[in-house]
Structure formats: structure tokens, C-alpha cells
Amino acid sequence: MARRRLPVVAAVVALLVVSPAGAGGSPLAKRLERALTVPHVSQARTGALAFDLQTGETLFTEHDGLPLVPASNEKLAIAYAALVTLGENFQIETDVLGRGVQDGTTWRGSLLLVGHGDPTLSAAGLLALARQVRALGIRHVTGGVFGDESYFDARRTGSGWKSWFYVNECPPLSALTVDRGRYHGRTSRDPALAGALLFRSPAEVAAAVDRQRRERRALVDVEPRLPADTGAAGIEERLVAEDAARHLANPGGAHLPRQEAEAGA
Questions:
Q1: pTM value?
Q2: By mean pLDDT, which of 68-82, 122-136, 179-193, 218-232 is the weakest?
Q3: d(CA 94, CA 175)
Q4: Which of 38, 64, 146, 226 is at 20 to 30 A from 177, Cα to Cα?
Q5: CA-CA distance, 168 to 91, in Å (whole number)?
């Protein structure tokens, strides 16, 4: 059993404290007004409110009562809710369960890789789980390897997603996602199956871990200071936020009807 810390605990909701200034004609208000004036965004569909955290004084407003659908800034609220509701020490488990009996070094039955919504689960995590299985003396498995994603529902997209988010910007949502849903260089539309296939083959797991290490080294060598808004970072943020929201909606961990994907014998 591997326990992994929910990465949203590292997200800090940073609120800017500014010096008191009169709203409207202040230099800060003028800067904010210019920042909100962009060609591709309608002013009629823009809203903002800035106030001083120390005094409560309103510094800037623009359509502050206008109801708008939240975008990526909703992740801040989810991060805060996760910290308050789940706690900073909350951990997500990924388990390996067996169906059958151990006969010497052989497991006569199948193995079940059970996900509980860890968006950061990687091939390295699977390798750690495989080593725990090996430590029990198991060298052969006669049955199949299954991926269990029943901790979450079967929805693959989040509410309000744009059509191109699916697969292109975020893997299909699942309680069992490994390497952000990537398998053999592509984003799988069945994350649980991809995870089970990867876990079934120690050679594939080791190769994936080695590939990730090489990629990390290449990134450091080529660009020591990566931009904050990289494609991978965007995928990670959306996946983390969606999984965190599901944990908040299901804090007791009640399982849904079991959904399994078999990787084969």
C-alpha cells in the first residue's frame, strides 16, 4: 500500500495587501482598469473587486455584482476547501489487492490495482507498489491484473469543460490515473486500463520511470527556469483540481458500483 500526499496542500491562496488608496482615481485603480481592458474580452462581461485586507477599504470595482462563471481561479477556492475540509496531512492511497491464494512464489489468482483519486500517481509509484508485492515473495501471478476506478463515478469530464479540454488539455477523469493518463506516449481514454497495463509489466514500469528521469534531466539542462504556465503544469493543475473536488464531494470514501478494467493475464 502506498500513501501519497494530496498536492493541493502546497497551493497557497495568496491575497495581495496594498496600501490604502481612494477608489476610482488612484494610480492602482487606473492600473487595474488598464489591465482589464484587453481586445478579446468584452468589458460588459468583466467583473472585478479589490479591497484592502487591513482596512476593508474598497480600492477598485468594475461590475462587481455581475454573476460570472468562474474559470481557472476556481482552483484557489478548491485548494482552500481541501485544506480546511481534508486537512494538510490528508493522504491518498493506491492499493494492490489480491483475489486468490499464495502458493510459494506464485499467486494463484488475480491482482487488483485500486485507485483512490491520486492525480500525481506515476510509474515510480507503481514501481514502489510492485516492490511491495515482490517483498511478499510473489514472483508469478496466474490470473489477470485489473484496474479499479470505482472510488469515483464514471464521468470522464468536469462540469463546464470546453470540448477541447478532454484528452487535449486533461486526461479523462478517473480514480486511477497514472502519469496523467499517458501510456506509450499518448493520452489514454481509459486511464484505469492504461494503469493496469503498465503495472502488469515490470519492464514497462522501469522504462517509464527511466524515461521520466531523462526528461526531467533534459528540462533542467535545457531550461533551468521553466515558465509557470507550461502545458504539463496546466494539465496537472486541472487534474488535481478536479480530483480534489471529488474528494471534497465524497470525504467518507463511499465506493460506487465497482468498475474494473482488465489488463490481461
A1: 0.67
A2: 218-232
A3: 10
A4: 226
A5: 28
